[in-house]
Write a structure and sequence with these properties.
210 residues; two-stranded antiparallel ribbon; globular
């Protein structure tokens, strides 16, 4: 079985040349040749962001370092949980790594298209002032990609037939990312977010939203 090693900063991926993760690494190298990956907890400015986010979300997001991976121009900083997953899945099943990189690639492309200054201004818009709709529009396409990846891996999870370890469904978790404190209450109208989810699910099932 042919394999190849890919180096992105502090992270190395060994991929089967026939795998989707191999194709992803190849595309990332071509599209973002200077891409660096690091562990968020070891990056000093991520700690500065963490303090800001604690204030920004009124203490609602205390898991910025442990759960949420961050992307900026030509850079991905992995949370503790994703770092652990990366370590455990360097050999074997790469589905979670692939899904994570698919999500973050959306943000890398947004930074390339709009630039760091505009992305930062939109993303850091305070909660409840204009309902932070711009931030929701940044995150929405990335979360739709995550939903598509989950559909390809395990359709029962995204249709609500399986519970997560937290006890809720994938849809519950997906909606909570927009309506809760994780990103500063990006768009607290749950019916709208559920509509986004159901429209994408309808499309994945072979329907059309056009």
């Amino acid at each position: 079985m042919a394999s190849r090693k890919w180096q992105f900063g502090k992270y190395t991926f060994n991929t089967d040349t026939r795998s989707k993760l191999h194709r992803m690494c190849e595309e990332l190298k071509q599209e973002f040749p200077d891409l660096v990956m690091d562990r968020k907890r070891t990056v000093w400015w991520e700690w500065v962001r963490y303090v800001f986010i604690l204030i920004f979300t009124f203490g609602g997001n205390r898991r910025y370092l442990s759960v949420f991976t961050s992307t900026s121009k030509n850079r991905i900083d992995f949370s503790d949980i994703h770092h652990e997953q990366l370590q455990s899945e360097m050999i074997g099943n790469h589905d979670r790594i692939y899904r994570l990189l698919m999500h973050e690639r959306v943000h890398l492309r947004q930074f390339a298209k709009y630039g760091s200054i505009l992305m930062s201004l939109v993303y850091l818009h305070p909660p409840f002032i204009g309902l932070a709709y711009g931030r929701a529009m940044i995150e929405k396409p990335a979360y739709l990609v995550s939903l598509q990846c989950m559909w390809e891996e395990d359709p029962l999870s995204v249709t609500g037939h399986k519970l997560l370890t937290t006890g809720g469904t994938y849809k519950d978790w997906w909606v909570s990312q927009f309506a809760g404190p994780a990103y500063g209450w990006m768009w607290p109208f749950k019916k709208t977010i559920e509509g986004w989810y159901e429209a994408e699910l309808f499309r994945l099932r072979g329907g059309s939203t056009r």
